[in-house]
Amino acid sequence: MVTINDVAAKAGVSKRTVTRVLSGSTQVAPATRKRVLDVMKELNYVPNPLAQRLAKGRTNVVAVFCYDTSRLFERQTFFEPIIHGIGEALGQYGYHVLLLTGGQGEKQRYLYSEGVNTAQLADGVIVLAERTEETDLLRLLDEEFPFVVVGGGEVSGREFPRVSLDYVRGTEQLVRHLWECGHRYIGLWCADLERGWNKERCEGYCRAMGALHAVTDSYVCATMEVSRALDHFLTLERPPTAIIAGDDLMAMSLIREARQRGIEVPRELSVCGMGDWLPSAQFDPPLTTCDFRLEELGREAAILLVERLQREKADPKRVVLPCRLVIRDSVATK
Description:
The longest helix is centred in the C-terminal third of the chain and has 17 residues, at about 295-310. The protein has helices spanning about 5-10, 15-25, 30-45, 50-55, 70, 80-90, 135-145, 165-180, 195-210, 225-235, 250-260, 295-310, and strands spanning about 60-65, 95-100, 110-115, 115, 125-130, 145-150, 160-165, 185-190, 220, 240-245, 270, 290, 320, 325. By secondary structure, the protein is of the alpha/beta class. About 40% of the residues lie in helices and about 15% in strands. The strands form 4 sheets. The protein has a 6-stranded parallel beta sheet with strand order 2-1-5-6-7-13, with helices on one face. It is built from 12 helices and 14 strands.
């Protein structure tokens, strides 16, 4: 197999000169360039495309880093359509996707491992996270490594490119729809209010309920366990007639738990989800929810990163996509 060293020796030039010819550099004299190209043709030298891209400072690879591996491989849920959208958009620009995972539990890993950026072999990185590590974002910003965050993450006093959903208005839409259906006691169930996205859901809920002068005290429940959540709501002096779950899978589990206790959905308890994932329309009953437009979220993140890669300097930009109310049969009229 002919190597770049063979070409350099035959042409009587350095390896660096051959590399410059391959990268299209203007720092090579025309006569020298012709001699190198003639030798390549004579030896049937086939350039390594990866080496060429590295010589130009580009790999045509974009890394996608996910902190929460447990969520990454769930089918038909949050991250799957986002990654599909990212891959589809990057493919149109000629980029490949490198998937990096952060592990889970005690084996949790961060984007920077032992002080080294794990995405450094790529041209840039898209970070998927409900909440990001501030130290990772600070390092990316300080090193001026191109990146875009999908979802949560804040760095005090620093701006960075981010694509997210308008969870606040999406939750407001669900509250208003339930109110228009006659529900006056409405609960909100989220797994963890420390996560940025859930904080925004709670903000939207409280804002909408406050505008309607409705009761919110004790009507927000934060727990991972569906049985504990339903226990909490049912022990209130006035149990909610409708509950908004943090996502569609939580809504489905809540409906199953209610039915096991003999509660009819939606006649006795209306339930809404968030996300409009694939199983939602086929569930019994089909879920009223908010369409998170997750594939579009991935596409927007990819396009934003490509824009940054094509320009050496770009102002930090935040893209917020609206959510769309999807009305189905899991909500009854009171």
